[in-house]
Every structure is written in structure tokens, then in C-alpha cells.
Specification:
Strand 5 (about 140-150) and strand 6 form a beta hairpin. Helix 9 (about 235-300) runs parallel beside helix 11 (about 335-365). The protein has 11 helices and 11 strands. It has a 3-stranded antiparallel beta sheet with strand order 2-1-11. It has a 3-stranded antiparallel beta sheet with strand order 4-9-8. It has a 3-stranded antiparallel beta sheet with strand order 5-6-7. It is elongated. The protein is about 55% helix and about 15% strand.
Length: about 375
């Protein structure tokens, strides 16, 4: 929305530094109005350009403060060459809204504008709003009896003695500002106005001139029009920065914890797999050993002196079958395979020893 405000209040024809100053002033003004439950009155234009968007982005979150508090950062289109103080314009006293020079405003387009109204129109308007009787001499109808900060009109006295403010005349006849003079000629009144708006706070035309002619930066412009202020991040912006930092820190910690848990899970799975493979292979080896023992015991029970030697060919095929089965169940388990091969070699050696003993026994019997 701030881009729309800056576009509505100034527009892309203004310099970038003036646009930045307007963005900060408008944002500050909005926050101030929110703090006192008032609705800010601002111009809006949705069709903003990238120039305005860039200017607003460059000063995002910045506000004007006085003694640590958000200020009432009011502004107007153009002053009379001198801004009006809030005390003289509206009453009360705000130290940062005092009258200051705005030397280039008199060079602004439409700085001086004439508004001409007929004698009859002015008479009817005054009668309807105030219900007074006017004299026959129109030149006596108005008298400016009070001004402030240069040419801003504070009081106008009418021919019947009624007094009104300059702002009242401004609103009554649709004038551009309350800095005016009144003249009468050829049955018509001419109201000549100077500047545009109430004249308090920053002058938008003045800000643009200071940026383009004097090369002032946005913060210098703001400090010129709002006396004694600081340009800094708002409390809301500071809180947002802190929250973002906390969120980023929390996200980083969460990522680290998740990674650590995943690693532990992988390690545990690998350990369980290895244990299972070792147990299975060992069971198979024990079975082969039991088979050999059973064969020897059976021969002894029959009362034979000759030890029965297991068929070496059959045993080798069984062992090869078991070896293939074991290899399929424990693929990558080098230690188990080596253990099995060692056991196979031991059994083969025992078989050869038994065969030699059988031949010796047979020779003994023949003799």
C-alpha cells in the first residue's frame, strides 16, 4: 500500500530521494494515526512504476522519531516559502513541527493561483453559511486581521464584525491554501493563494527541489522539515528482524538434529545385518561337523575294527552345496567364508588319515 501512497502523493516525476523521504514520512504518519486510533488521510494511486517501488523498498521500515517516539509526520504539497508551525496552524505545541524555510517553493508550478468568484456567488455563500447581512459596498465585506508564519491567514473579519479563520474561508470558497489575499474588481472577488495545502511539516515540492538542486538525501530532507528528529527503524521493523533471525536459527538447529538422527539409524541397521549373517553361517558349519561324528560312532557300535571312511566325493559335493548356500546367505561376509574353507580343509585331512589307517589294517590281516 505504501507504494500507492507515494504514487498518489508525489508520482514518478519526483526525484528518487524525494520519493524516499515521502515514503518514510507517510509510513511514520500512518503509524502515528494508528497509535491514536485515527484514520490517515492520504492520496492513493495503484498504477505505480518501478521507480517508486525501488524508492519505497530502499527505506522499508524506517520512520521519524522524536525522543524515541513516532512523530506526527504531516506534509503538504507546497508551502509559501516558509512552512507553518503546528502551534500556529492548529494549536498545541510540537517541537519538531516548527516553521522552517522552504526556499524553493516559490518556484513551484502553480505556486500562485487566482480564484475568481462573482459578487452574487460570494454574497449567497456567506448568507447561507453564516446568515449575516452584508453591506452595499462589497469592498468592505472582508478584512484580513491576522496572519502567522509569513502570509498564512489566521483571522478574517467580515463587515458585520463576525470573525472567521483563514481555514474557514479556504474551505468555504474552495481555495488551495489559507495563505491568500482578497481583491474586488468589476463585480467579482479574486482570491489569490500562495502554496498548496496547510503548509505544516514537509513540503513535497520543497523536498523535490532540495533533492534535485541541493542534492540532499532523503534523511537530510526529513531532518530539515521535522526539527530534531531521528530516522531509524520502527519498533515493528526491529521486532520483525529479531523474529526472522530467531526463525533462521531454529531452522538451522532442526536441520542439524535431523541429520544426526538419520546417521544413527543407518549405523544400527548395518550392525543388526552383520550379526544375523554371522549367526547363520556358524550354524551351518556346526551341522557339517555333527554329520562326521555320527558316522564314526555308527561304525564303532557294529564292532568293526575298520573305521568307515565317508565317501570323499559325496562329502565334497555336500560341502560345495553348503558352501554355495552359505555364500548366498552371507554375501560380503569375508570372515565367515574364510572360516568355512578352513573347516573344509581340516575334514579332508582327517579323511585321508583314516584311509591310510585302513590300508595298514588290511595288510596286517593278510599277513
Amino acid at each position: 500500500m505504501l507504494c500507492q501512497v507515494v504514487n498518489g502523493e508525489m508520482g514518478p516525476s519526483f526525484s528518487s530521494e524525494a520519493l524516499k523521504a515521502q515514503a518514510v514520512a507517510a509510513y511514520t504518519y500512518i503509524l502515528y494515526c494508528e497509535s491514536i486510533d485515527e484514520i490517515p488521510e492520504l492520496g492513493l494511486n495503484a498504477n505505480y512504476t518501478s521507480k517508486i517501488e525501488n524508492a519505497v523498498s530502499a527505506v522499508e521500515g524506517l520512520v521519524c522519531t522524536y525522543n524515541g517516539k513516532i512523530i506526527n509526520a504531516v506534509f503538504s504539497a507546497c508551502s509559501t516559502g516558509i512552512t507553518a508551525s503546528s502551534k500556529n496552524a492548529w494549536g498545541g505545541s510540537l517541537s519538531y513541527l516548527i516553521s522552517v524555510n522552504s526556499k524553493y517553493d516559490t518556484q513551484a508550478t502553480d505556486y500562485e493561483v487566482d480564484t475568481t468568484l462573482s459578487h452574487t456567488m460570494v454574497q449567497m455563500t456567506l448568507a447561507l453559511r453564516l446568515g449575516i447581512d452584508l453591506s452595499d459596498n462589497p469592498e468592505d465585506w472582508f478584512e484580513i486581521t491576522g496572519t502567522y508564519d509569513g502570509s498564512y491567514v489566521s483571522e478574517v473579519t467580515l463587515c458585520d464584525g463576525t470573525t472567521v479563520t483563514g481555514d474557514f474561508i479556504k474551505e468555504l470558497f474552495g481555495l488551495r491554501s489559507n495563505a491568500f489575499i482578497i481583491s474586488y474588481k468589476d463585480s467579482a472577488f479574486t482570491f489569490t493563494t500562495y502554496g498548496y495545502g496547510h503548509g505544516v511539516g514537509m513540503s513535497q515540492e520543497g523536498a523535490n527541489f532540495y533533492a534535485s538542486k541541493d542534492s540532499l538525501k532523503f534523511d537530510q530532507i526529513l531532518k530539515h522539515y521535522y526539527t530534531g528528529v531521528k530516522v531509524e527503524l520502527s519498533d515493528n521493523a526491529q521486532k520483525t528482524v529479531v523474529e526472522v533471525e530467531k526463525t533462521e536459527a531454529t531452522t538451522t538447529t532442526t536441520k542439524k538434529t535431523t541429520t544426526k538422527k538419520t546417521t544413527t539409524k543407518k549405523t544400527t541397521t548395518k550392525k543388526k545385518t552383520t550379526t544375523t549373517k554371522k549367526t547363520t553361517t556358524k550354524k551351518k558349519t556346526t551341522t557339517a561337523s555333527t554329520k562326521k561324528t555320527t558316522t564314526t560312532t555308527a561304525a564303532t557300535a557294529a564292532g568293526q575294527t575298520t573305521t568307515t571312511v565317508p565317501d570323499e566325493t559325496t562329502y565334497s559335493e555336500d560341502e560345495q552345496t553348503e558352501e554355495l548356500t552359505t555364500a548366498e546367505q552371507a554375501e560380503e561376509e569375508t570372515t565367515t567364508t574364510a572360516y568355512y574353507e578352513e573347516e573344509t580343509t581340516t575334514i579332508s585331512e582327517e579323511a585321508e588319515t583314516e584311509a591310510e589307517q585302513q590300508e595298514q589294517d588290511e595288510e596286517t590281516l593278510e599277513e
